[in-house]
Amino acid sequence: MSGQKSRESNAVTTIILALALVSSGIFAGHAYAQIPSTGGITLPSPSPIPAGIIPTTGPGLPSQNVTVPQVVPIPSSTNYTVSRAGSGLVAYDSFTNETATKAQLQSSQGWWIYGGDAPGENAPYALWRDPQGLHIGAQGPANGTYAGYFAQTPITSATLYHVKVTAPVETIPSSNNYLENGMYVQNGTMDVNYVTCTSVTTTTGTQWALVAANGSPYGATTFKSLWWTGMSPNQPLTVDCTIITNGTNYLKLLMNNVPVYESRSLNLNMSSQFITFMEPQSNYAGQLLNGTFQNYYETAGGNVTVANAPPSAAMVRIVQPTSSGSGSVVASAPVDKSGRATLYTENQQMPMHAYVIVYDSKGDAMASTSGPVDIWGGDTYSVGGSSVGYTVATTNELPPPTNLTATTASQSQINLNWTAPQNSTSVLTGYKIERMAGSSASWSTLVGDTNSTATSYSDKGLVPDTAYTYRVSAVYGGATSSPTNTASATTLASQYQLTVDSVLDTGSALNGMYTVLANSTGQTVGTGWTPASFMLDTGAQYSVAVGNYATYVFDHWQDNGSASDPRQVSITSNTTLTAVFRDTAVQASPASGSAGTLVTVTGTSFAPNSTISITFDGSSVVTTPPIVTSSSAGGFSATFQVPLAASQGQHTITATDGTNTHSALFTVN
To answer: What confidence category does residue 199 fall into, taking pLDDT thresholds of 50, 70 and 90?
Structure first.
């Protein structure tokens, strides 16, 4: 297509500029190291944290919990049993259960994927496993140039991530050089958005930090320090890191199993699925420095839930055996009126090898697991198996609501509707509404009692582009029924992608048409060449316009036939709009008629003094004059008869001089 070279040169200029940014170090380190993931997707690894963004003064690391635990007897038998109903474990690797060399690990990659940019930069790196853990080493190819190597998980949907991290040294001898060694929980899509619990080592000392990064598929471009210790040469080098996040607004960090940071108002810009990296990154060329990792696990949550407790149950405890007949209490929680207890366990080392024991109000054990079991955050347990004929949860005899539905209303609201219970002899006083958000596997109470018999509810203030699951129970005074069916809905995203494409009216592809996006006040907020993509705020009003180029003139929009340019647009999902153009370099007169019609074809913008070939649906036609030649200005005129065999509908008339090709439509009535 003639006239396209100017737009192509702009694209080349953009690529050259991007390469210049990379070479200048604006996009630091090995954000460009591509790694394989599940489903054949390639995802970028985390970018190094730029020097100087983390303050060097701060608190020290918290010590492991030294509270003297409560010691209780372990019952020899109970009337009821406690059994696991669902596991919260997503993945676990102690890193200490095998001995393997770098070559062995790289040749047998499975759940763990090993990679990084160190090999491509000819930088020294190390990788091995032994009874002390997973060891990964990195060395900068030159002082000031980052290199790294990592172990990376597949995409998962856990919410709690834990690993014990050991930094190799207290200090490094070279000024303005850094070693980062930690766990990165990163967005499961192409953009390099992550949170990391990492050590940072310099000539001054070592510090530990929680940093959030946002960027593009080419690497992280913005970094925010959320929590950090002071930097000193006597900082502990081994730390338990626990990160809990939903990827959107919520993030919590526990260091040595002690909460040090929590926020529910962040813009993490991550999906609900993540990949995790164990990775050292270094721009110090003087030494290969090896980080060590132990006891990696990821779970569906930080709490353990026990349900279906007997009516007289008052307390549930997790008890780790310490000696014959006794154990220490590591977590406990009261039983609510529905027979449920939720135990806070995110501050415990997992797995907890322990009993789950249910007690009555007198402190006597009523139910227990048959022995110590491996307990993970997100686990659910249920009480049953009575030796005295106990029927679980008498409140379940009360009729529940039915037919729960969840409907997306906006970015921040989901509407619930259900059918009231039928055939109840008890007085209905309200409803209990429970919710699971994102990838969480545990229920939280949204409304304990609506104190209303209305069968609808609007859940507001939600996070955009997040899935929520609900269930509703009927409240009869002090008793609660079993729940309804579950119902799920996803809030609208805060932004959706608008793609503007272009084609010729003949159906041929036409790329590179200039496109302008303006907001409701007429201000330009984006430009590009088709196919052009823009991110639009959900439901906001915009206008989109396409420009003519050379002989290509806008005709209409493919989806609605409108000839409005610009056109108004507001989207609530990813949307593609296609602009249809006419090629005015070829005109057919008349533009429609019956088979056998004599048509005059005129052309412009062809090569001067050139032989012109004319076809009808790709087949040559007899023209008058028999040999058509363009003028010194590149124009021509010729006539031909539409073939008598031409069917009803649109047909394509094409003229070419061998270099320039243009087409027009003719409609057979």
So the answer is: very high
Tell me the pairing of strands 575-583 and 495-504. parallel
SS3 at position 40: helix
Would the pLDDT of 271 be above 90?
A: no
Q: What are phi and psi of 485, to 5 degrees?
A: -60, 160
Angle, CA of 261, 296 and 87, to the nearest 5°: 90
Supply the pTM of this predicted model: 0.56
603: closest CA among 654, 669, 545? 654
Could you tell me whether strands 206-216 and 219-228 are parallel, antiparallel, or unpaired per DSSP bridges?
antiparallel
Tokens of 428: 């209905």
> If 0-12 CB within 10 Å is exposed, 13-18 middle and 19+ buried, where does residue 636 land?
buried
Cross-strand pairs, 275 = 186
Q: What is the pLDDT of residues 292-324, one digit of tens each?
A: 999 999 999 999 999 999 888 999 999 999 987
What token pair was written down for 492? Answer: 């609208």
Question: Do 141 and 276 fall into the same domain?
Answer: yes
What CATH number should be reported for the domain holding residue 483?
2.60.40.10
Domain ends where: 365, 392, 419? 392
Same domain, residue pair 265 and 141 = yes
Average pLDDT taken over every residue of the chain: 87
Compute the distance between CA of residue 467 and CA of residue 439 in angstroms, rounded to an integer.
Answer: 8
pLDDT of 651 strictly over 80: yes
At 20, is the secondary structure helix, strand, or coil? helix
Q: Are residues 212 and 359 in the same domain?
A: no
> In sequence order, what DSSP letters do the residues of 342-410 get, joined into one string?
EEE-TTS-SSEEEEEEEEETTS-EEEE-SS-EEE-TT-EEEEE--TT-PPS-GGGGSPPPEEEEEEE-S
Q: What number of residues does the chain have?
A: 669
* Same-domain check for residues 103 and 238: yes
Distance between CA atoms of 243 and 259, rounded to whole angstroms?
A: 10
For residues 380 and 232, membership in a common domain is answered with no
Q: What is the pLDDT of residue 278?
A: 97
Q: How far apart are the first and last CA of the chain?
A: 31
**Distance in angstroms (rounded) separating the CA atoms of residues 377 and 357:** 17
Would you state the structure tokens that stand for residue 379, as one six-digit string? Answer: 């686990």
CA 411/CA 419 separation, integer angstroms: 26
Contacting residues for 109 by C-beta, under 8 A, at least 6 apart: none
Q: In the structure encoding, which two tokens stand for residue 548, read together?
A: 């003519």
> Quick check: 537 pLDDT over 90?
no
6 located within any domain:
no
Total domains in the fold of the chain = 5
Q: Is the omega angle on the peptide bond into residue 259 within 30 degrees of 0, that is, cis?
A: no
Structural domain range at position 417: 400-490
- 424 and 479 co-located in one domain: yes
Q: At which of 583, 599, 631 does a domain end?
A: 583
- DSSP conformation letters of 210-279: EEEEEEETTEEEEEEEEEEPPPBTT--SEEEEEEEE-SSS-EEEEETTEEEEEESS------S-EEEEEE
**Residue 164 in contact with residue 295, Cβ under 8 Å?**
yes
106: three-class secondary structure by DSSP: helix
Residue 60, in any domain of the structure: no
- Report the C-alpha gap between 307 and 327 in whole angstroms: 23
Average pLDDT over residues 515-525: 93
Phi (first) and psi of residue 614, to 5 degrees: -120, 135
Same domain for 266 and 355, yes or no, is no
* Distance of alpha carbon 50 from alpha carbon 33, whole angstroms: 17
Please report, for the domain that includes residue 192, its CATH number. 2.60.120.560
Q: Read off φ and ψ for residue 39, nearest 5 degrees.
A: 70, 15
